[in-house]
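Narrative of accomplishments. A recurring question from our advisory board has been how the design workflow behaves on a single, concrete structure rather than in aggregate. To address it, we present the structure tokens for one chain from the evaluation set, followed by the sequence designed for it. No filtering or post-editing was applied between the two.
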């Protein structure tokens, strides 16, 4: 992948990370925010599973607070 594509992916990821917390507090968007919040760390773990398994596990488990 070229650098412009990586830059675009970085900007999209940052925008998604910024928009997730407010979306968790809006009842209509909460299920989608939880799904996106779980999918993003899971996708980050795929390229380097050993290095990111703790981060992904903690992030995914923190979303359980919004399910209850």
């Amino acid at each position: 992948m070229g650098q412009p594509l990586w830059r675009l992916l970085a900007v999209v990821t940052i925008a998604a990370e910024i928009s997730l917390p407010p979306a968790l507090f809006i009842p209509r968007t909460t299920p989608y925010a939880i799904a996106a919040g779980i999918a993003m760390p899971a996708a980050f773990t795929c390229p380097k599973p050993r290095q990111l398994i703790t981060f992904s596990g903690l992030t995914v488990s923190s979303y359980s607070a919004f399910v209850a």
